[in-house]
Design brief:
Elements lengths: L1 H16 L11 E8 L3 H4 L17 E4 L1 H4 L8 E6 L10 E8 L7 E4 H6 L7 H8 L2 E8 L9 E4 L9 E6 L6 E9 L6 E7 L2 E4 L7 E9 L2 E11 L8 E3 L22
Parallel strand pairs: 1-5, 2-4
Antiparallel strand pairs: 1-6, 2-5, 3-4, 3-6, 7-8, 7-14, 8-11, 9-10, 9-12, 10-11, 12-13
């Protein structure tokens, strides 16, 4: 009975987070972007990916404004970004992953310098000239994160302390979705407890089951939501600082009801 109640509570969370306020990620937005001259500024970002941040998408990462960051739910989201200077910029742009919170009211995104340069035309010197602009007009929209055949992973944070405290973050989450709730249980058990989002991409619990651990992820994609069950993720001897294969990948694409801007979708 307790598991059923928890399931319906989590579904309520899905509908809460799938409201129209968050339903236009795929729409094309027009704004400005700047860049960090040092990638280390993003690797110490609010999502708490740490030094591994610069390894995502070959260092094409970004800090995003609060409505994209979504109190950490937007960490790991991918966006296609292109600048609108036809002299310096290509029509393709580049894909970036959100790893930090942008608190500036001048730009929606602050890109790593590598991502900023990648928006330039593939001609000698265009990327340097683009950097000299500092801030540029852009258009951007959310796109699925594509990690190929790589499964989603669960990283156990160094702050985790057996037997009573577990902190994790999800890595390599595919698709165009957000994880809005996580449940945990011993493998083979029906007694589930929940993790809370601590900060950025980090989830924590002080009610850690013993033995091998399984997870349920409540995932939203626009107006759609579902539960993804990973039946065995952490072994009984899990260790802080290690990363474990979740055995599943999320590939859902957002199905959204944003009629006012559907005709602006970037193709």
């Amino acid at each position: 009975m307790g598991g059923a109640i928890l399931f319906f509570l989590l579904l309520a969370v899905v509908f809460l987070f799938s409201s129209s306020a968050n339903a236009c990620d795929r729409c094309l937005h027009h704004s400005k972007a700047s860049y960090f001259s040092s990638a280390s500024a993003l690797s110490s970002g609010a999502c708490a990916y740490g030094s591994m941040a610069t390894g995502f998408f070959a260092g094409h990462i970004a800090a995003a404004m609060p409505s994209i960051y979504k109190d950490g739910a937007g960490c790991g989201a991918c966006f296609q970004v292109r600048c609108k200077n036809p002299t310096l910029c290509s029509s393709k742009g580049t894909t970036v992953m959100v790893t930090d919170l942008n608190k500036s009211n001048q730009t929606d995104l602050v890109l790593s310098s590598r991502a900023f340069r990648a928006m330039a035309k593939p001609v000698v010197g265009a990327d340097i000239d683009l950097l000299k602009q500092g801030i540029v007009d852009i258009e951007y929209q959310r796109v699925p994160c594509d990690y190929g055949n790589k499964k989603m992973s669960v990283r156990v944070e160094e702050s985790s302390k057996k037997p009573n405290y577990l902190a994790i973050k999800l890595l390599y989450q595919g698709g165009q979705t957000e994880v809005v709730a996580i449940d945990i249980a011993q493998v083979g058990s029906s007694h589930w407890s929940y993790l809370s989002r601590s900060h950025g991409a980090v989830w924590v619990t002080d009610k850690v089951p013993t033995g091998a651990l399984q997870f349920k992820f409540v995932v939203t994609a626009g107006y759609d939501g579902k539960m993804v069950w990973s039946q065995r993720v952490l072994p009984p001897n899990w260790e802080a600082g290690k990363t474990y294969d979740a055995g599943v990948q999320i590939t859902d694409i957002a199905q959204e009801g944003c009629d006012p801007c559907d005709h602006h979708i970037w193709t």
